[in-house]
Amino acid sequence: MSYNYGYLKSRRRQSRKGESMKSCPFCAEEIQDAAVVCRHCGRELVPQTTPEKEALAKSAGVLEQSILNYTNVGWMLVSRTDRMAQLKKPKKFNWGWFLWWLLIGMIAFALPVILYLIYYAAKKDELVTLSINDAGELLVNGGKPATAAITNTVSAPLPSPEQVAKNRRTLLIVLGVLAIVFVVLPTACAIFGAIANSFN
Q: Does the record bear Membrane in its keywords (predicted)?
């Protein structure tokens, strides 16, 4: 009976000191929570780390650091286990490339049209001068001689040189507008888009 009394007395003393107690998993005796070795049976209470556990803990730290590095530059974590992680990088719309390809497409479409209009505007009109000499013969000066037989047909009147010049000016204005729409504006958009994209 004195043994039990002494045990309870020592138990109360430990509780007054504020130490928490636990029971030993091997001998079931009461020991301090912070104990590393049981004072009753002498067994170690802290599990010994094996090289495999240390390697696993180290690789988990390496994996965690790698995940952190990827997520810091925009990757998103999709799934994760102890030994594997899967990340994905969200798609980002690149305005610079979009405008670049749009510009190339517009130039590829408009370039033949613009080149033909330049050719047409630069081409000189063919002039034919028809005159009748004193003998009553028809003289043809310049141009290709007409080989078709002249019949009593009504033909459209030839435009005057002023009308031809006006048509040429109109064509050059249309050519300038097409060049601005299909070359200058897309180039400016591509440049400004690339500048704006560089800030993202």
A: yes
Q: Which residue has the tokens 């690789």?
A: 59
State whether 115 and 46 are in the same domain.
Answer: no
Q: Which range of residues forms the domain containing residue 85?
A: 42-91
Share in percent of the chain as helix, strand, coil (round to 5): 50, 10, 35
* Residues 95/197, Cβ–Cβ less than 8 Å: yes
What would the pLDDT profile of 82-97 be if each residue is shown by its tens digit?
778 899 988 888 878 8
Q: At residue 32, what is the residue type? A: Q
The closest alpha carbon to 95, from 194, 198, 200, 199, belongs to: 194
pTM (two decimals): 0.30
Tokens of 147: 């080989």
Q: Looking at beta carbons, which pairs linking 97-101 to residues 24 or more positions away fall under 8 Å?
A: 98/193, 99/186, 99/189, 99/190, 99/193, 99/194, 100/190, 100/194
Q: pLDDT for 49-75, tens place per residue?
A: 566 666 666 667 788 888 889 999 888
Which residues share a beta bridge with 22?
Answer: 31
